[in-house]
Amino acid sequence: MQYEAHAKVNIFLKIVGIRGNYHELFSRFMLVSHLFDTLSFVPKSSRMPFELVGDFNCALEQNTVYKIFQTLQKHGFDTEIQNVMHHEALHVNKRIPSGAGLGGGSSDAATFLKMLNDRADLKLSAEDMMALGAEVGADVAFFASGYTSANVRGIGEKVEAYDEAPLDLDVFTPPLACDTARVYRTYREYFLQFINPSLAASMVDMSSEALLQSFGKEELNDLYPACLQAYPELRSYEKEGWFFSGSGSSFFRMKEK
Ligand SMILES: C[C@@](CO)(OP(=O)(O)O)[C@H](O)COP(=O)(O)OP(=O)(O)OC[C@H]1O[C@@H](n2ccc(N)nc2=O)[C@H](O)[C@@H]1O
Ligand SMILES: Nc1ncnc2c1ncn2[C@@H]1O[C@H](COP(=O)(O)OP(=O)(O)O)[C@@H](O)[C@H]1O
């Protein structure tokens, strides 16, 4: 069986405060229906306790799927998941570009958590998986929620379904990977003074379509100016009528009807 780990875009992303090294935000997350990695269990070819097959630009220990394995071990599911990973390797067919603001690593993490929950019959609810996922990355709770559109708050751990049909989206990713931590650091250094929580609050109740019709990318995404400051070459890829997702580098727009 193959599982799909879908990409997301941030329809809006407004910073409303700081929490230690993290930033508190209001954001609308929406899954992208046509863009996903596929994950499946395949027979093992080694004796390693955790075998991962796929093209990644990071070490196994840095991989979000490995961090899910470790997190489940830490929470007492050691025997159950070792029984699975003793026989199976995890295969990931990566199609979501990395460092693209599309949440690929977080989506893989949430999907692998669901796979282990199914295969090892861990009996975790969506809420349990959201809490476990949040230990691996701020965005994982949204992907574990199963919602296609949601308002996300806190540093990413508070997820509330937003009732709307998913939009049909075009996504364009420039050949530029953006480091999320670097973009947030740049935001804090240069843009924190421009914080506007009342504008953020006014966006929460608007449909995604109305948001994209009412605001431009600079108003919708507080990380856009920070990303331009950190990666000036990004400017050469911006196009009229396209919006900016998360910490970049992807742009998106509603498909023309
Ligand atoms: C910006 C967003 C928007 O959805 O995602 P991307 O666009 O990168 O996919 C998220 O806030 C990213 O979430 P995620 O990529 O899961 O972040 P993490 O791995 O937990 O953290 C990476 C780094 O980003 C910073 N970080 C992350 C989340 C947050 N609310 N405030 C932060 O300041 C921290 O410096 C942290 O060390
Ligand atoms: N499963 C994974 N898929 C992709 N990248 C991963 C994964 N696990 C860890 N990473 C690391 O996280 C970085 C950010 O990747 P990704 O989550 O796809 O981007 P973004 O944070 O922009 O949404 C990658 O460059 C890579 O080093």
TrEMBL record:
The keyword Cytoplasm does not apply. Signal peptide: none annotated. The gene is ispE. PANTHER family: 4-DIPHOSPHOCYTIDYL-2-C-METHYL-D-ERYTHRITOL KINASE, CHLOROPLASTIC (PTHR43527). Keywords: ATP-binding, Isoprene biosynthesis, Kinase, Nucleotide-binding, Transferase. Belongs to the GHMP kinase family. IspE subfamily. Coiled coil: none annotated. The active site is at 8, 139. InterPro entries: GHMP_kinase_C_sf, GHMP_kinase_N_dom, IspE, Ribosomal_Su5_D2-typ_SF, Ribsml_uS5_D2-typ_fold_subgr. It comes from the Bacteria. This is 4-diphosphocytidyl-2-C-methyl-D-erythritol kinase. GO terms for molecular function: 4-(cytidine 5'-diphospho)-2-C-methyl-D-erythritol kinase activity; ATP binding. ATP binds at residues 97-107. Gene3D superfamilies: 3.30.230.10, GHMP kinase, C-terminal domain (3.30.70.890). Residues 63-146 form the GHMP kinase N-terminal domain. Pathway: Isoprenoid biosynthesis; isopentenyl diphosphate biosynthesis via DXP pathway; isopentenyl diphosphate from 1-deoxy-D-xylulose 5-phosphate: step 3/6. Its EC number is 2.7.1.148. It catalyses: 4-CDP-2-C-methyl-D-erythritol + ATP = 4-CDP-2-C-methyl-D-erythritol 2-phosphate + ADP + H(+). Catalyzes the phosphorylation of the position 2 hydroxy group of 4-diphosphocytidyl-2C-methyl-D-erythritol. One of its GO terms (biological process) is terpenoid biosynthetic process.
